[in-house]
Structures are given as structure tokens and as C-alpha cells.
Task: inverse folding
């Protein structure tokens, strides 16, 4: 099992920034690709970003390209999602996820992930 705990969510004005963190424990962190998805009220969950275990491969949802940046620190067993120029439509619960990919892949759909965190709320006011 991999335990994931998100932090860093909150309330921010449009144009502001937040950095989400995802602390992992339980298995070797560097065997796992990490990803972030989000779900807004009344909407389907959408996959936002992913990063391979070594950080070589990344993926971004089109609507967040140029604004969000995913990274990871394998020494700290932590993944990050830096979110800049936030928009009201970014308001959602953000979930961190881990997928066993020691070969370096970075799955781009939330259904491919094995473990999930409890989520952290991000609210962007206009």
C-alpha cells in the first residue's frame, strides 16, 4: 500500500498561486509515477497532470498548460503541483495519486492509478 496525504489547498483570488504537496509513504516512492486529478461540484473528475518517477516525462491537461507545473522530490517522498494564474474554473478538490511505473511511464488517465489521497480543496474567487 501507498499512503498519500495532500496539503496546500485553500482560498485564493483569481490570478493568485498555490502549491499543493503530496507526501507519500509505504512503498519505494521512486517506483511510482505521480499524478493529480480534480473534481468540481457537479462535474466529472478530470486528470490534471502527471510525472514519471524520474521526472523525465510530464503531462498536463490543456487548460492548465503554462499555468501549472508538476514536480517531485524523491528524497522527500513528495510530489508537488505549483498552480499559478489560478482561475475560478480551477476550483475543485484536488487529489494526488500514485501508479506503479518503475519503467518510467506517466499515466494520463486517473483510472490507471493505484492509490489515491483524500484530496485538498482549492477555491479560486473571482
Result:
Amino acid at each position: 500500500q501507498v499512503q498519500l496525504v495532500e496539503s496546500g489547498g485553500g482560498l485564493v483570488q483569481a490570478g493568485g498561486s498555490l502549491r499543493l504537496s503530496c507526501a507519500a509513504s509505504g512503498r519505494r516512492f521512486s517506483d511510482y509515477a505521480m499524478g493529480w486529478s480534480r473534481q468540481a461540484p457537479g462535474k466529472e473528475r478530470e486528470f490534471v497532470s502527471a510525472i514519471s518517477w524520474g521526472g523525465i516525462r510530464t503531462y498536463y491537461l490543456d487548460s492548465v498548460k503554462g499555468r501549472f507545473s508538476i514536480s517531485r522530490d524523491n528524497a522527500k517522498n513528495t510530489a508537488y503541483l505549483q498552480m499559478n494564474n489560478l482561475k475560478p474554473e480551477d476550483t475543485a478538490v484536488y487529489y494526488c495519486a500514485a501508479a506503479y511505473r518503475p519503467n518510467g511511464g506517466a499515466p494520463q488517465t486517473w483510472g490507471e492509478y493505484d492509490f489515491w489521497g483524500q484530496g485538498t480543496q482549492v477555491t479560486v474567487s473571482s
